[in-house]
Structures are given as C-alpha cells and as structure tokens.
Amino acid sequence: MKRLFKGVMAICIAVCCIFSVTACDEVKNGSKIKTVTITFDVNGKEEAIDFELYLNLAPATIEHFEYLATKNYYNDTVVSNINKYIEFGAWYGDKGAYVSKYADGATVGYSSIIDSAYTSGKTIGSSKTDARYNADGTIIGEFARNGYSGNSLDLSGALVLKRDVSSENDELSYNTGKATMAVTFGSGGYFSSKDVFAIIGKVVTDDATDGKDSSYERLQTIMEDYAEDDDGNVYYFYTGDVDTDGVGNYFMYTEDGEYLAKDDTGAFTVELTTENNEDLLKDFADNADSLKTIPYGDVIIKVKSITFSK
C-alpha cells in the first residue's frame, strides 16, 4: 500500500507540474507566448489592447521592442497613421505639432536609449556571432527574406516593426528598423509580404466579454471611426523630403479630390495646385507612405503605456 501511495503521489505531482508549466509557458505555433497590453488614449478615453508576443519567432526584435517600452520610449507617442494599419512610435506631440522621436534632442529620443553602450556585443540569430545592430542604431531585419526563417505569422492583426522601404535596392532597406511599430490588418501596399517584415506578435481576438468587444475589434473600430470626418474628408501629416513651399505639413483631402493646406487661422482653405505645388503633389502620388492618415479635426490618439505580463 505504501509503495502504491507513493506511485499515486508521484503521478499527481507530475500532472501538477505539467499544468503549472502550461499555465506559465503557453505555446502557440511552436513558440512561447507573452502578453503585452498597449493602452491607447483615444481622445481622452483609455483603450487597453492586448497582444500576444511570439518569443521564439523574432526574439531579437522582441527584446528590442520590450527594452524601448520599459524605458518609456513609446509613452505619449501619437498614432501617426490609421489608414489600413495603425502606426505609433515615430512622433510625439509638442504644442500641437508632431515632433520626430528620431530627431536630436527629442524627448526620450531613440538614440538616447539605443546607444552604443546598449548595442555593443548584442547578436542576432542562432550563430550568436552576427551583430544585431548597425552603427547608426538600426536593427537587423529578423525575417525570412533577410535570412531569418521560421516565422509562420501572417499580417492579419500583426504587431510589426516598420522599416524603410523607399530604397531601390530592397536589401539595403532590410536592416533599417528603429522603433516605429504598426498593427496591420492584412498584406498589401506598404506591407507587401510577411517575409519582409519582422512580425513579433498578434492582437488578441478572443478576449471579448458581454460588455466589450475583443482587442482586435476595438482596434479596428478606432481605425474606422477616426480615419475621416463626417463629410468624408481625410487628414494627412506629410513626412516626405519635398519642400512644402510654406504650406506646412498638415493637409486635408476632400471628397472632390482636392488637397487643402491650413491658412493663418488654422482652417483648411489653401488649395494646392500643380502651378504652385507641382513637386509636392507629385510626391504625394509617388510616395504614399509619406502621407500619414491622422485622426480628423483636433482628435489625438496616443500611447499611454505599455505593460508586459509577468
């Protein structure tokens, strides 16, 4: 009996250990999962959106993102695109204007966190010898086309590190990611393929309750509700390199297909014309990502905080 009792106890302990590990180390798509909550301030209302990070699929990029987040880099960064995907981490608001987080002297700027002291000795990939960062602090692209395979995640509801795609030589742009993040709702346009971007996680789709939609649904609603005003006008912040000829960086695109800039009072009344603004209008057409779709009117959407599960 005593031997039988010990056997039963051993089985019970083993079962308990299995359940304990499962609870702490959930596995999906062959990867351990960690939950991160990004709380957005949506025009004064908090929206806490949960994501699952896939720790084994893009470990270097996840460590990069988490380090920035724990240093409060993302706090108060504005949502700088809400058309087809939601973007944050590149800009913050200062007296009504967008200021780059990559600029010298930026508040909690990128280079003040990802500096040589941090990047020195950090590696990427299984060899443990390849440098993770370039000299300018950009991170090596952790995705299939760049030699890092095994990430099965697609771009539907994905948390993705953005990078430069403007180079004519794709390979030159693969290793240009910094801190700008996007939540994508499918492939196409800027996010042409899952194989050319570091996908680190997915927005949670099954956390709906009786009184609240899922994180995925609430994020989609934010995008749909603020992408244009009641008259169908769309608002843009221009980030391109063409001289704006004194018309500023904020524009409204009307239902009639006109681009309007702000006048001295802040109203959108100044029409852009090919006669006066030919180069600018051409850049609008040729470089779509230089036009960031921002919330209409005076609506501000920004990151309030990012927290990780223990």
Question: Could you explain the architecture of this structure?
Answer:
The protein has 310 residues and is of the alpha+beta class. It has 2 domains: 28-226, Cyclophilin (Beta Barrel), CATH 2.40.100; 234-294, no CATH class. It has helices spanning 2-24, 59-70, 110-113, 116-119, 170-173, 215-226, 274-286, and strands at 27-28, 31-42, 45-54, 77-81, 85-94, 97-100, 156-161, 181-185, 198-203, 234-238, 250-253, 259-262, 268-271, 291-294, 301-308. The strands form 2 sheets. Strands 1, 2, 3, 4, 5, 6, 7, 8, 9 and 15 form a 10-stranded antiparallel beta sheet that branches. A 5-stranded antiparallel beta sheet has the order 13-12-11-10-14, with no helix packed on it. The chain is globular. The two termini are 42 Å apart. Residues 1-24 have low confidence and may be disordered.
How many domains make up the 3D coordinates?
2
Q: Which term fits the overall shape?
A: globular
Q: Strand share of the residues?
A: 25-35%
Architecture of the largest domain in CATH? Answer: Beta Barrel
CATH topology of the largest domain: Cyclophilin
Q: Determine the mean pLDDT.
A: 90
Number of DSSP strand runs: 15
What distinguishing features does this structure have?
Cyclophilin, globular, alpha+beta, disordered N terminus, 310 residues, 7 helices
Draw up the topology in text.
Layout: H1 2-24, E1 27-28, E2 31-42, E3 45-54, H2 59-70, E4 77-81, E5 85-94, E6 97-100, H3 110-113, H4 116-119, E7 156-161, H5 170-173, E8 181-185, E9 198-203, H6 215-226, E10 234-238, E11 250-253, E12 259-262, E13 268-271, H7 274-286, E14 291-294, E15 301-308
Antiparallel strand pairs: 1-2, 2-3, 2-15, 3-9, 4-5, 5-6, 5-8, 7-8, 7-9, 10-11, 10-14, 11-12, 12-13
